[in-house]
Automatic annotation (TrEMBL):
This is Diguanylate cyclase (GGDEF) domain-containing protein. Keywords: Membrane, Transmembrane, Transmembrane helix. NCBIfam families: GGDEF. GO terms for biological process: cell adhesion involved in single-species biofilm formation; negative regulation of bacterial-type flagellum-dependent cell motility.
Length: 372
């Protein structure tokens, strides 16, 4: 493998800053040239206002330092720093003696609402945009007379609102596309069930829930009997209809907190938390029989989930493969015993570390997901 190819395969280093934090750092630097200009050209500011500008620059330096130290700002931190930054911009614009320079600085009020639109909740974006509009209006009509006030006010509002609206629209569109792609990547396009990639996070939560509640994980591997004959004699379209019908029959029978996925081909997987194996699989057999003209065979494995050490390296895929292997052996027994039946594997146990959900809030969240 070449060095260039090796670099392409390496995972990208995750940035310490998000878009808002980077925007705060770079936009805050706009106050530093004002101080330099004011020192070199004393008439740039209104008389006696240099100490005020120095105070704004100090606040700017503190803002940049805090953002660099924190990295990704919380919504509250961004709101506080953004509000302070907009107020600083407004004061700077008022301090500048030249009206054209003041108008140029006023345009910087659009920066914080635009940054908010890129990654803040709607209430934060609306609050900061409203504050920026008020400040821009106050500055634009200051010193203007007659109809010029209306022109200045319209220009100020447009300067603030349009960038925020555009970025908010782009963000909404991007989130919609991302959600769609995530759905396509995590679900089986034919049946709408989860695929292997999509079920892994759900399996992690299910294992954690079983560990917290000291219950077992029951794994059921469902396989359509003689599915190849359906494709060969009736065509692949009929086979797709059979798979869709079987998937719907399984989904109707399982509890709401179960994980249901299509593994590929004619195999489906059901995982659930239960104290003991119940008669669910018999209900699935009956539901499939009454829904279409095929039958299924089911292999079931049950495993106690024991808490593992917090520093143990346990991979969800490895644990899932272990569970499905046991269910697959039971499925083989069901197939060789005549099909259209359920077979059970010997009870087993697996370990699952709870280090990632050590807090009470995380534990309650895991349990809540299971109850929803």
């Amino acid at each position: 493998m070449t060095r260039r190819a090796d670099r392409r395969l390496r995972p990208e280093r995750e940035s310490h800053f998000d878009t808002r934090s980077k925007g705060v750092i770079f936009s805050a630097g706009g106050a530093l040239p004002l101080l330099l200009i004011a020192v070199l050209e004393p008439t740039f500011l209104r008389p006696g206002t240099l100490p005020i500008l120095v105070g704004i620059v100090v606040f700017t330096v503190v803002t940049v330092g805090f953002t660099v130290r924190v990295g990704t700002l919380t919504d509250r931190q961004f709101t506080v720093l953004g509000s302070g930054g907009m107020l600083g911009v407004a004061v700077c614009a008022f301090l500048i003696a030249d009206p054209s320079g003041a108008r140029a600085v006023t345009a910087m009020l659009a920066v914080v609402p635009a940054l908010a639109a890129s990654g803040s909740p709607r209430r934060v974006t609306l609050s900061l945009t409203g504050a920026a509009v008020i400040l821009a209006l106050a500055l634009s009509i200051n010193g203007a007379e007659g109809v010029v006030r209306f022109v200045a006010a319209g220009a100020a509002v447009t300067t603030v609102i349009v960038p925020a609206l555009l970025i908010a629209a782009m963000r909404t569109s991007l989130e919609s596309v991302t959600e769609r792609l995530e759905t396509l990547a995590n679900t089986d396009p034919l049946t709408g069930l989860l695929n292997r990639r999509g079920m892994l996070p759900e399996v992690e939560a299910l294992l954690a829930r079983a560990c917290l509640t000291r219950k077992s994980v029951v794994v059921s591997l469902v396989d359509v009997d003689h599915f190849k004959a359906v494709n060969d004699t009736r065509g692949h379209a009929a086979g797709d209809d059979v798979l869709t019908t079987v998937a719907e029959a399984i989904a109707r029978q399982v509890p709401s907190d179960a994980v249901v996925a299509r593994l590929g081909g004619e195999e489906f997987l059901v995982l659930r938390v239960a104290a003991t194996v119940t008669g669910l699989e018999e209900h699935i057999l009956e539901a499939v029989r009454s829904s279409c003209d095929v039958t299924v065979s089911i292999g079931v494995a049950q495993a106690d989930v024991r808490p593992g050490s917090a520093d143990a390296v346990v991979d969800v895929e490895t644990t899932l493969d272990r569970l499905t292997y046991a269910a697959d052996r039971a499925l083989y027994t069901a197939k060789t015993s005549g099909r259209d039946r359920v077979a059970f594997a010997l009870e087993d146990s697996v370990e699952w570390p709870l280090g990632g959900i050590s807090s009470r809030r995380d534990r309650l969240e895991v349990l809540r997901r299971g109850a929803s």
